[in-house]
Structures are given as C-alpha cells and as structure tokens.
Amino acid sequence: MQADRKKRTPSIPLKHYGWIVVGVWTLVAAASLGWNLLQDRDEALRVARNIALTNYARDVLYRRWAAAHGGVYVPVTPNTPPTPYLAQLPERDIVTPSGRRLTLLNPAYMTRQVYELAQESGQPQGHLTSLKPLRPQNAPDPWEKKALQAFEHGAEEVSEVVSLNGQPSMRLMRPFRIDLSCLTCHEEQGYKGD
Ligand code: HEC
Question: Whose CA is nearest to atom 35 of ligand 1?
Fold first, then answer.
C-alpha cells in the first residue's frame, strides 16, 4: 500500500487518498543551551532540531506502547478522573479485589499528563493537537494551526525558532496520520481510514 501511494504521489494531490492528516505532535525544546554555547547559528539550529526530534521520537514510542496495550489502567485521583471520552467502554472503570478504583487512560490522556509534568519541571514540552480536536481543549494555538494547514498540503515537518519566555526555543511539529486503528475512537470527527 505504501509503495502504491509513493508511486502515485506526484500526480494525485494528498487529499484524494481518503486519508487525512489529523493530529500532530508539536514539541518545544528549549534550545537556549545550544544557542548560547555555540557561536555558529546553523550549528545551533541543527543541535536544537536534533534535541526536538529525539524528544519527539521517544514520545511517539511511549504513546505506541500505551496504544499497543489498549490504554493503561491507573488509580483514580483528583488529578486523574475517569475520562468522559471513554464513557462508552463497559470497563473504563474497574475495582481491584481490595477495593481500589482504577480507570483506563487512552494514550492522548497519558501524554497530556506527562506534558503537564514537563511544564512544571521545565523539560521539553509537547502537545498533541488537531484542527478538529475530539477534546476541545486540545485545539491548536496560532502557530500550530498554521503548521496543521501546511500538513494538509503535504508538508512533513514544520520547525522554527520562536521566543518562549524571552528565550529562543526550537519549535518542531510533525503529522500523525489516521489509520484504521484510530477510528474506534475518532470516527465521529469524519476521518476516513487508510
Ligand atoms: C481508545 C480510543 C482512542 C484511540 C484508539 C485513538 N485515540 Fe486519539 N484520542 C482519544 C481521546 C479520548 C482523545 C482526547 C483525550 C485527551 O486529550 O484526554 C484523543 C486525542 C487525540 C489527539 C489530540 C486532538 C484531539 O482530537 O483531541 C490526536 C491528534 C489523536 N488523538 C490522534 C490519534 C491517532 C492518530 C490515533 C491512531 C493512531 C488515535 N488517536 C487513536 C482516543 C483514542
């Protein structure tokens, strides 16, 4: 399938394939370390982009791990309430034999909590977003929106140095495409599978 797609790419616009860019992962890696240490601007940019890409790849891997397990059960706490987006699942909430309440986190819920921790501890931050988010609070900011629109026109990556809290920071975003496995939960957004 992949090969077919490649063969036809030059003549057929992306949107005709029946699969759509949905989601995107955006990552802000604080690049000031490279920035200040390195005189050479190109080299600083290359280092910053590599830091962002490494973080991105690791985040996607952990998300895949969670997805491969069909989500993960964690204890219910005030910071981790059951998600309304999985309310249709009969076993979203379960109780262990000793009475502990557990709830199922979908991968996007998990990564969102990790990024909240990253923000508190000043680590590279990420955001999973979409032009048609399932969860309205996941909506893109203006920079992300522009990048998402570029992905709809075939771009594979958008990156730029922006000012974040007065520090030059590398912002990098890549598309995350819908396949059939996503539709169980994302069908109502009108996406079509591969
Ligand atoms: C088990 C259900 C489930 C599956 C399967 C699933 N998602 Fe999601 N996804 C969700 C839920 C629920 C949210 C919103 C949750 C949140 O942020 O807490 C979400 C959020 C997202 C977001 C952030 C924007 C938004 O819509 O809120 C993206 C992007 C996304 N998913 C992409 C994907 C892709 C791509 C796949 C397949 C590779 C996928 N998802 C598979 C349930 C799922």
Answer: 178
Question: Rounded to the nearest whole angstrom, what is the distance from the C-alpha of residue 36 to the centroid of ligand 1?
Answer: 37
CA 62 to CA 132: how far, in whole Å? Answer: 24
pLDDT digits (tens, 9 = 90+) for 108-130: 999 999 999 988 888 888 999 99
| CA 173-167-145 angle, 5° bins | 30
| Residues lining ligand 1, Cβ inside 6 A | 22-23, 71, 83, 85, 106, 108-109, 112, 128-130, 133-135, 138, 176, 178-179, 181-182, 184-186
Evaluate whether 170 touches 41 at the Cβ level (below 8 Å): no
Nearest alpha-carbon partner for 29 in 127, 112, 111, 108: 127
Q: If you take atom 16 of ligand 1, which residue's CA is the nearest one? A: 109
pLDDT tens profile 80-96: 999 999 998 999 999 99
Residues 57, 151 contacting (CB under 8 angstroms): no
Q: Which amino acid is at 46?
A: R
* Polymer length in residues for the chain: 194
